[in-house]
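This section describes the prediction task in plain terms. A model, or a person checking by hand, is given the sequence of a single protein chain and must write out its three-dimensional structure as a string of tokens. No templates, partner chains or ligands are provided. The sample shown here is typical of the held-out split.
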Amino acid sequence: MAKNILNMVLWHPRMKINQAKISYIHRGAPGNLKTIKGSFIDRLENGFLILNDGTQIPFHRIIKIEYNDKTLYIR
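The expected answer:
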């Protein structure tokens, strides 16, 4: 489901990925949670969100997607 929402934001003609925020489980981070801006996204692959620095985040770790302070996805 998270992948579908991210694809919608990436490809929708009226949406801009840099206005999105993605929160995901990141072991070792404070509260085991990390939030990134959509502008850090390079691409989506089979089971992963790939960031500009090459970091791969499995879709099952994404817990929240926000767009302009509106929640589009929450697990």
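For orientation: The radius of gyration is 11 Å.
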